[in-house]
Amino acid sequence: MYKRVQYSTLAKRVAEKRRFIQVIMGPRQVGKSTLMKQVVQSQDIPYMFYTADAVPVTNLSWISDCWNAARAKMKVEHLPELILIIDEIQKIIGWSEIVKKEWDSDTFNDVPLKVVLLGSSRVMLDKGLADSLEGRFERIILSHWSYAEMKEAFGFTIEQFIYYGAYPGAAELIDDPERWMDYISGAIVDATINKDILVNEKITKPALLRQTVELSSAYSGQELSLTKMIGQMNDAGNTTTITGYLNLLSQAGLVAGLNKYANDLARKKNSVPKHQVYNNALKTLYCGKTLEEAILDRTLWGRLYESAIGAHIMSYAYAGKYKVYYWRNGEGCEVDYVLEKNGKLIAIEVKSNSDQWNRGLSEFNGMFKPYLSLVVGEGGMKAEDFLSINPVDLFK
User: Fold this and answer.
1) pTM
2) What gap in Å lies between CA 153 and CA 148, rounded to an integer?
3) How far apart are CA 169 and CA 192, in angstroms?
């Protein structure tokens, strides 16, 4: 079975003497549970696995019950150590305080119980970690899969990666389009909305939230004003509501609304958003054409191509601690993606065919003096190469 690079990191940490809680974070269906399974099966350390998926959100005692069961197993079987794994823990309201209490109790009483927490809701995990567990945990962040990973694990071609995206669970379904679409719709979109967002957030218009996902995904790689979005939706809403929903969807690893790059914060916030999925499978889900049809449609393929580059950039942004924007200065003068980290800028222009020409990169270079400017595609870095690297390495 294919092992991601995070495997060695987690395997090393769980083999160490008890020191920190390990927190594995990432969007749904990127392989968090598989990674954990691979690691524990490679170790001689006993483990216990629990998931909060079907546990009532107010059942705080459930976490302590899991902990006590692990302690009891260690005591009865005279185990020198044990790994307690809890999946989707962020769904329990107030989870971090209970984890802190149990972890600190084990620390005080010298109980060598190692703990690994898994979660797909980044914002809820981050809040709990910051509120209660400072100094007690380490993160391992899983991004969506790169082209290099999908190629090595499933034999994907670059065209398949651009069209089908990077969900490993869907890779073996691509020969059955209906099953593939059902998987992306059910295991990704529906599960994220129903189990991550609606459970943790007060959403007054669930139908509008779903329409926001669909429209933003369909327009991935393109600018679309919030006013025009509302005009295409069946449910009533306003720009403030849509903005809030886009923020939630971004935190959940589905879609984001990128701001236009500018020197001042106000101009960034007030710009027309450029919509961008985190995984190109979401754009394909709403494109309405097969892979073969999409390749023959030059306009559609160009948009899928650009969206795939953007999805790769976005997928690594949180772990890489860089921000992503776009830039436009009039008609025909734009930069597709602008990355910002520690005062450094990287400007990226995507070219899917040799007919395209854009003066935006040279103008942006003159105005903002980026650390690096890069063309991905025709006349620049090959898409295969770019989609195989971690974009944060461009800042080195």
Assistant:
1) 0.92
2) 9
3) 15
